[in-house]
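Fold this complex.
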Amino acid sequence: MPQFLKDNKKYYTPVEYVFAKIGGTYKMPILWRVKDRAWRYSELKKSIAHLSDRMLSKNLKELVHDGFIDKEVIPEIPVRVEYSITKKGQEAIPIITMLREYGFRLMQSDGIDDK
Amino acid sequence: MPQFLKDNKKYYTPVEYVFAKIGGTYKMPILWRVKDRAWRYSELKKSIAHLSDRMLSKNLKELVHDGFIDKEVIPEIPVRVEYSITKKGQEAIPIITMLREYGFRLMQSDGIDDK
DNA sequence: CGGAATCCGGAACGATACTG
DNA sequence: CAGTATCGTTCCGGATTCCG
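Structure:
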């Protein structure tokens, strides 16, 4: 007995819904980068460690589909594609900010090795 | 080149560290329940949908190991085992609260079907 | 009652090669 | 430059069984 239904998928908690939309390894790093200005595909690729074309493409597509970022194709030669944050995406930034701050505190209290 | 090392695992962002510690499908639901009082194993089992013994056992052990909850074995017959939140665990509650609130807002703006 | 151990399938993910 | 297609691999998590 699912608590919530959306696009034929079931979610049992609101937190699960958040993770489905902006969770995973790469979505928050992507949102974090495009929050201030538009980024090109290749910029994101270079900037995020261990991010494959497959995963970048997949995550960008989902973020666009879910309304967190916009995709703009600029018809130059070669073509330039830029990704920028939407209003909906902006609303996720305070969440990511808090998670980052909490993460830093947690790592400090766990005596993390900076490297 | 990892940015952070802890117990021979590498983390690239603080958010990733948070997810490693209290992410996954069940850890936040568990923390959310024990935040106000101690819960028994069987209570948690009944309360959380689709939670198997394997996953509950595994997640409880990790949460105890990472210091978010305490385990108390009360030597009755049959033995009673209770899990309660620690100070470190309490510090995660505002994060979960925020994620829940954001989740509800997100679901509303996405026109979720309550069910 | 409160777990631990084992087995296993499917989805997620990564590497590589290729394309408009 | 910005992806897509294909193929392997990993790994999460479910089912089952057993134990103090």
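Residues 40-42, 45, 53-54, 56-58, 60-61, 73, 77-81 of chain B lie near DNA strand C (CB under 10 Å from a C1').
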